[in-house]
Specification:
alpha+beta; 20% helix; globular
Length: 75
């Protein structure tokens, strides 16, 4: 991940691009599994927007979400 230098109290935006073999699972099944895992890994995880899109003829999706860091700051 590439991001500009930031101050300690700056808001951080991030973009994660995942390209992988889903192990035979449909994109929908992979997406559902991911949505089940993120709330366990990220504190106060909240999905704000979730869409399925096609990318170069393949299934894909976009997710806008936020969570809190160890100091209670929103990310």
């Amino acid at each position: 991940m590439v991001e500009p230098a930031r101050g300690e109290d700056d808001v951080r935006a991030s973009l994660v691009l995942t390209v992988l073999d889903t192990g035979g699972r449909s994109f929908r099944d992979w997406q559902n599994g991911t949505e089940g895992l993120l709330p366990q890994e990220l504190r106060d995880y909240l999905v704000l927007d979730l869409h399925t899109v096609e990318v170069d003829g393949r299934p894909g999706g976009t997710r806008l979400a936020h969570h809190l860091d160890e100091r209670g700051r929103a990310w």
